[in-house]
Amino acid sequence: MRNGKQLYRNPDNARIAGVCSGIAEYFGLETWLVRILVVTGFFLLAGPFIFVAYIAAWFILDKKPAGLKDNTPSPVFSKGKGWTNPNAGQVKSAKVEVKTKVWQAGEPPKQAFHDIRNRFEKAEVRLRKMETYVTSREYQLNKEISRL
Fold this sequence. Notes:
Helix content is 51%, strand content 0%. The protein is mostly helical. The longest helix has 26 residues, at 109-134. It is elongated. 10% of the residues are buried.
């Protein structure tokens, strides 16, 4: 195992059996790159070996469980790798993975910036609504009634 991960076939993002998708997820690469490497290896290097290895991986690797998520706690910002919800327990929003190289899995930095900015804007709107309620007369009235 690598970094606490396990290698699975990923049938959600599969073309044939999900082997390339699982390998790409395990190593943190783009799926299209792994597929191109497998096809190139099949045609240029060792066709029968690649074919047998792919079929063997199809039968040996388990399907990725449906509810499996990365449960390892991570800091809010981790070396350009993304942003997670700092609340302990369940993570409501998915981690934004920022790719630093073309072949890495994740979002381009510009798209990740827009996603994070949208999250903060939504949080700001919720905060403004709460602040408006707390400073209103209705809140004060409810507070006084609760004391009685």
